[in-house]
Specification:
By secondary structure, this protein is α/β, with parallel strands linked by helices. The protein has 10 helices and 9 strands. It has helices spanning 3-31, 41-56, 76-84, 124-134, 153-164, 194-200, 216-222, 233-243, 265-268, 270-297, and strands spanning 64-70, 91-97, 115-118, 139-142, 148-149, 168-176, 182-184, 213-215, 249-259. A hairpin with a 5-residue loop joins strand 6 and strand 7.
Length: 302
């Protein structure tokens, strides 16, 4: 292909992406709840990507949307920095402010690089769901505003998934304190196969939600996070996926830093979490046991 035809091909691709971005943005503004305020930065991000395609002449791989729900968290700037500093280039960072009244100034310097959405307070599940409605990526990652990703998180995990042709995965993580010091490295149990992951859910929650990377189409098929579970919406989601045949594979790398501090939801709402978990387990564990037994009797389903 000569230089003129190559340039024409890139121009067509550029215009296609640009038009698609404008249409997508218009549809999003029409379909989103009235309380959501999508910033102009989203259009700039999509336009920048189209320009990179045009001038660079190559695609950047599937887009990954990193959703950061934020509510009065002092560590939010570290979370955003870690999302923006991924070695994998094609990411959009969506920060959903769940009606915060403090630490909002920490976001200001990032607003030209992220999609910023502010909504009335409704809990983490509603914030993540708001991010899902706005996301344009093929893959979704969730990052709590008090945690952070290592730079290679998306690149390594996405490569793992593409090599194995899987739609959802989770990883190990390091347990850190407020000063970013590692208290417990590789805090999660290490799994050898998918069967071990399923069996783990018969006794405990094996997945840290901020280690997940998942294809967005799964949420289109199975539904969004349930606001009924204010503190354990992720636990319910992983159960819902597993009992409906959506495999969640373990990738043996520690790619997320999970923070322990006195103001975290995990620290403050232990009693509420336990009550919600009892409800979830009562409903899903019999279904999971049935699914596991059926899979064992019919190995072709594994």
């Amino acid at each position: 292909m000569n230089e003129v035809s190559t340039k024409a091909c890139h121009l067509r691709r550029f215009m296609h992406i640009l038009i698609k971005s404008v249409i997508s943005l218009m549809n999003l503004e029409l379909s989103s709840p009235p309380s959501i305020h999508l910033q102009k930065s989203e259009f700039r991000l999509r336009f920048t990507y189209a320009m990179k395609i045009f001038f660079g002449g190559k695609t950047m791989g599937p887009k990954v949307s990193i959703i950061i729900p934020f509510y009065n968290c002092a560590f939010v700037d570290q979370a955003i920095k870690s999302a923006l500093n991924q070695t994998y280039e094609n990411v959009e960072v969506i920060v959903v402010d769940d009606g915060s009244t403090s630490h909002t100034a920490k976001i200001e310097s990032f607003k030209d690089k992220i999609v910023y959405i502010r909504k009335e307070n409704g809990g983490t599940a509603t914030a993540i769901n708001t991010g899902l409605f706005a996301a344009t990526g093929e893959y979704i990652a969730w990052l709590s505003s008090d945690d952070y990703f290592v730079p290679e998180k998306i690149s390594k995990q996405l490569n793992f998934m593409k090599q194995r042709n899987i739609d959802a995965s989770f990883t190990n993580f390091d347990y850190i304190n407020k000063d970013n010091q590692v208290l417990i490295p590789w805090c999660c149990k290490r799994f050898s196969n998918l069967e071990e992951v399923y069996n783990a859910y018969l006794t405990y929650n094996a997945i840290n939600g901020c280690t997940i990377l998942i294809k967005k189409k799964i949420f289109d098929e199975i539904g969004i996070f349930s606001p009924d579970f204010r503190y354990t919406h992720d636990y319910e989601m992983w159960f819902r996926m597993l009992v409906n045949g959506y495999e969640i594979h373990y990738y043996d790398e520690a790619l997320t830093k999970f923070r322990s501090h006195e103001k975290s939801g995990t620290s403050r709402y232990q009693n509420e979490m336990r009550e919600e978990m009892k409800t979830i387990e009562f409903h899903y564990r019999p279904l999971l046991q049935k699914y596991i037994s059926k899979s064992q009797s019919n190995p072709s389903q594994d």
